[in-house]
């Protein structure tokens, strides 16, 4: 009745106000109570802030660190991806360690989901369940010292070839990424499939786009997945995996030379032959083999790029490292180094350099965890426990940013010596770092990665001096792909003999 006696515009105005207030109420940002966050706007949460920061720094990781800094601490903060989706963040080493080793937390759907569209049956795409455990058991041979020693030869072959190629590029600034990508793809393909394959190298690059990170990742992934070029690349990779598996099965059924397991397919097929049943489902085997390439390729190339970045920025460390290696490793033209030559005990400074590259370069910068049951976290102010109900999501920022309390004010600086004790021995507990994660879901390939990076550094450091780049190219700014790579990286190589003879 009241509408009949009010002027005609009042009705619509009241209606508009009611709808507006209801909308504001529904879309009101809903952060997790008692966890500091930046002011969030209706509907978008902190999404616009994050997108702006991403545009400026090209990394989501740095945007999240910024949130933690602005909200007063590294132990626990949150970001609202939209008004409705708060995600907890931590960069605190104690908090990270507790979560990584606890059975209460696992990779949740957000983390496994990155890989699910492409390789749904691989470790990377699974939460810990029976399928996951069966895959872990099946691939246990891949971390045995005999397998690692055998496969280290594949990396050495590519290191030799890399040195040959780069020897013809001395004296000029160039981008090392294409050749490193090519070499690493060949080496890892030989480890997984028994032959260095260029097909994998090319198609992997294409497929990697379907795993892109960044704020619009889910949309980007959807678009990339249906692109004909990507579908073709996926098809070729699958055909390749199948053909290599057939070759391996034939070899075993004909009783060929199978005493020495030199690649992952042979490792699995040998188990099949011994037990008389399939160790993994066909899809499981296919996805796991592709995943080993995906997991091992990008991460290792990124680490090699950081090696080059830090070494070229730090000539004094190059001199020290070369001297260290000359004293402990046979000259490369006499014999290639072995896995046993390059242990933390025998070459402690080499190990210190690698661990510091991983710590500061921080290739896999963010990993996600989800509470599998009701549990607790250390609260934002530190010390007090904070409820984390089942389903709580948290991003662990693995870099050095949150380690000032443990490592010191210079934690962001590249200083390999911090890993050595007063006797010059390598001490793995001297500094905190978690580049390969820890606990039940730690990196499967960490041993292999370390072996291949040790070899790479030895070949580079004993052959070339890397010239210090001009100041504007010394920055350690990162760009985010699936991993965090150094931007602005170019290198200029000088053979040590020329340097020692004083030649330009
Ligand atoms: C420097 C090189 C590498 C780095 C920094 C690295 C880092 C990591 C990290 C941080 C994780 C844990 C991810 C998470 O929990 O969300 C991981 C998992 C994994 N990595 Fe690596 N990785 C490297 C090389 C490799 C290589 C060479 C391989 C294979 C040969 C590999 C295979 C895997 C697999 C299969 C997983 C999943 C393990 C699981 O979920 O149980 N990685 N890696």
UniProtKB/TrEMBL annotation:
<protein>
    <submittedName>
        <fullName>Cyp5491A1</fullName>
    </submittedName>
</protein>
<keyword id="KW-0479">Metal-binding</keyword>
<dbReference type="InterPro" id="IPR036396">
    <property type="entry name" value="Cyt_P450_sf"/>
</dbReference>
<keyword id="KW-0408">Iron</keyword>
<keyword id="KW-0349">Heme</keyword>
<dbReference type="InterPro" id="IPR001128">
    <property type="entry name" value="Cyt_P450"/>
</dbReference>
<feature type="binding site" description="axial binding residue">
    <location>
        <position position="443"/>
    </location>
    <ligand>
        <name>heme</name>
    </ligand>
</feature>
<comment type="pathway">
    <text>Secondary metabolite biosynthesis.</text>
</comment>
<dbReference type="InterPro" id="IPR050121">
    <property type="entry name" value="Cytochrome_P450_monoxygenase"/>
</dbReference>
<dbReference type="InterPro" id="IPR002403">
    <property type="entry name" value="Cyt_P450_E_grp-IV"/>
</dbReference>
<dbReference type="GO" id="GO:0020037">
    <property type="term" value="F:heme binding"/>
</dbReference>
<dbReference type="GO" id="GO:0016705">
    <property type="term" value="F:oxidoreductase activity, acting on paired donors, with incorporation or reduction of molecular oxygen"/>
</dbReference>
<keyword id="KW-0503">Monooxygenase</keyword>
<keyword id="KW-0560">Oxidoreductase</keyword>
<keyword id="KW-0812">Transmembrane</keyword>
<dbReference type="Pfam" id="PF00067">
    <property type="entry name" value="p450"/>
</dbReference>
<keyword id="KW-1133">Transmembrane helix</keyword>
<comment type="similarity">
    <text>Belongs to the cytochrome P450 family.</text>
</comment>
<dbReference type="GO" id="GO:0005506">
    <property type="term" value="F:iron ion binding"/>
</dbReference>
<dbReference type="GO" id="GO:0004497">
    <property type="term" value="F:monooxygenase activity"/>
</dbReference>
<feature type="transmembrane region" description="Helical">
    <location>
        <begin position="6"/>
        <end position="23"/>
    </location>
</feature>
<keyword id="KW-0472">Membrane</keyword>
């Amino acid at each position: 009745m009241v509408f009949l006696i009010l002027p005609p515009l009042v009705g619509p105005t009241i209606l508009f106000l009611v709808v507006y207030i209801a909308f504001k109420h529904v879309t009101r940002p809903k952060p997790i109570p008692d966890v500091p966050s930046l002011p969030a706007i209706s509907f978008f949460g902190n999404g616009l802030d994050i997108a702006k920061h991403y545009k400026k720094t090209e990394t989501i990781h740095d945007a999240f660190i910024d949130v933690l800094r602005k909200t007063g601490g590294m132990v626990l903060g949150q970001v609202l991806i939209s008004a409705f989706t708060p995600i907890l963040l931590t960069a605190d080493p104690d908090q990270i360690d507790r979560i990584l080793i606890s059975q209460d937390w696992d990779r949740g759907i957000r983390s496994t989901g990155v890989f699910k569209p492409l390789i749904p049956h691989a470790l990377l795409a699974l939460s810990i369940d029976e399928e996951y455990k069966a895959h872990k058991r099946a691939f246990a041979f891949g971390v045995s010292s005999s397998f690692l020693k055998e496969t280290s030869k594949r990396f050495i072959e590519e290191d030799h070839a890399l040195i040959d190629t780069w020897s013809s590029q001395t004296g000029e600034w160039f981008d090392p990424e294409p050749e490193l990508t090519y070499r690493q793809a060949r080496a890892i393909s030989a480890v997984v499939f028994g032959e260095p394959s260029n097909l994998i190298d090319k198609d992997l690059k294409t497929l990697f786009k379907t795993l892109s990170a960044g704020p619009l990742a889910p949309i980007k992934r959807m678009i990339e997945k249906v692109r004909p070029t990507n579908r073709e690349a996926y098809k070729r990779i699958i055909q390749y995996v199948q053909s290599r598996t057939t070759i391996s099965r034939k070899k075993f059924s004909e009783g060929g030379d199978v005493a020495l397991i030199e690649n992952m397919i042979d490792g699995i097929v040998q188990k099949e032959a011994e037990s008389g049943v399939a160790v993994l489902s066909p899809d499981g085997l296919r996805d796991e083999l592709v995943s080993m390439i995906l997991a091992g390729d990008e991460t290792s190339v990124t680490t090699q790029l950081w090696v080059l970045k830090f070494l070229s920025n730090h000539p004094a460390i190059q001199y020290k490292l070369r001297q260290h290696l000359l004293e402990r490793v046979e000259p490369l033209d006499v014999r290639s180094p072995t896995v046993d030559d390059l242990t933390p005990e025998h070459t402690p400074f080499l190990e210190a350099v690698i661990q510091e590259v991983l710590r500061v370069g921080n290739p896999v910068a963010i990993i996600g965890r989800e509470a599998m049951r009701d549990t607790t976290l250390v609260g934002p102010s530190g010390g007090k426990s904070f409820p984390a109900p089942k389903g709580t999501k948290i991003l662990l920022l693995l870099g050095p940013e949150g380690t000032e309390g443990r490592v010191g004010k210079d934690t962001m600086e590249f200083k390999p010596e911090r890993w050595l004790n007063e006797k010059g021995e390598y001490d793995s507990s001297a500094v905190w770092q978690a580049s390969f994660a820890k606990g039940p879901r730690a990196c499967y390939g960490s041993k292999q990665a370390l072996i291949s990076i040790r070899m790479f550094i030895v070949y580079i450091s004993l052959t070339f001096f890397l010239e210090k780049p001009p100041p504007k190219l010394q920055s350690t700014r990162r760009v985010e792909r699936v991993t965090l790579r150094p931007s602005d990286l170019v290198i200029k190589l000088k053979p040590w003999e020329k340097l020692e003879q004083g030649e330009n």
